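Reference record
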Amino acid sequence: MNIEEIREYCLSKQQVTESFPFDEDTLVFKVAGKIFLLTSLAEHTLNLKCKPEKAIALREQYPFVKPGWHMNKIYWNTVDLKEMIPAELLCEWIDDSYSEVIAKLPKKIRDTFSQ
């Protein structure tokens, strides 16, 4: 997937916004105001959140998955998009990150999402 396809996929999800809050290079996607994906346009990487055990497993299984750059390495991974990653796999990881963030939202906000 290229960055435009990733962008379209993220924006197709409920309550997602995009912005450049840090610099001109770092595109950030948030759900209900919380970050679930960051991507470096220059470096062709993205950061995704996941459960700690899955974060470690992905790093062990895929050489292009590293501990999250400038993020809490327990929950975040950095994925090198220069590698040929199947779209289905990348979409699964994006979905997981999105779901992880929603799961940590207050119940009142979580209830605004349709199943």
Remarks:
- The helical segments are 3-11, 52-61, 87-103, 107-110.
- The mean pLDDT is 94.
- Residues 7 and 18 are 9 Å apart (CA to CA).
